[in-house]
Amino acid sequence: MAENLVRVEQALHEACRADDEFLTEVAGHLLSAGGKRVRPAFCMAASIAGEREVGPISREAVMGGVSVELVHLGSLYHDDVMDDAEVRRTVDSVNARWGNLKAILAGDFLLARASEIAADLGTEVAGLLAATIARLCEGQVRELQDAYNVDRTEQNYLKSIDGKTAALFASACRIGAIVADRERDEIEALTEFGHAYGMAFQVVDDVLDVVATDEQLGKPAGHDMVEGVYTLPVIRMLADGHDGIGPILGSPLDEDQRLAARQIVRENDQIHTSLATAREYVERADAAIAPLGGGPAVDALVAAGTGLLERTETLVAAV
Ligand code: GRG
User: Fold this and answer.
1) pTM reported for the whole predicted model
2) Which residues pair with 118 in a beta bridge?
3) Atom of ligand 1 minimally distant from the CA of 79
4) Ligand 1 atom showing the smallest separation from residue 78 Cα
């Protein structure tokens, strides 16, 4: 897969190039700062999942992954403006370096490039990518509407992460399957895999926000609570009537409150029940692609879920 990720990287840099030198620099900032490229890897794996050997990955599967990664990047630009984030991928956020206006415009530029590439892959992919961007916005709005809401329900949380995170993972796999002209039942199976994996991914991301250190995260830990975003472990603690956390939450936190809230949550058992929920989603993801049989791509998709859980469990055990 390594040589295919190099193809993704080259195409991403190409897509970030604009006539204007300054826009090229701003649009390429987070791309050059790193990122795991999980979504393009999933798109390419979905295009060959079930095959006995890793054959050549088609240009369409590479470009499908590039379009999805560009939507992901664009959403990070906008997300950092909304959160007033200073650091992303261990470097200055785009808004911190150049200000909100340029960050918004460069994010728009990335979304436009994603749409251009998707259009080249056919109307089904173009329509799917557009609908996915809408779902990202819906998920994010749902989260904003629940900001500082100590009565946030688990159902609302799950609906929000379904839109803001799982939808793009689902589409990454679906696009890979569509451009490979796979059978409809296989397209559905791979979409379900991406969706369930994406749910697990966000639950884990939310657990890590309180469990991992600032260094491990590349940003301040416990930031979600500062922003009023109450995620699965916190929602469950509040629903349980945990009397330590309730009085701290419900409004913005100062530095001492951030550290106190983070300490209370990371030592609570709801970290473990949340991880159990992530595990259920990973099991659902694996079950969805079991009918495709084995092969290296299916094995890699399954290993992504196992690795996600193992890394998190190691960090949680160290608390
Ligand atoms: C403009 C498309 C668009 C959306 C606007 C801002 C917004 C609505 C949605 C935010 C969506 C968002 C930032 C979701 C979080 C997704 C997430 C889990 C990001 C971290 O993904 P990783 O770990 O990051 O794959 P890297 O850096 O490895 O790429």
Assistant:
1) 0.96
2) none
3) 6
4) 6
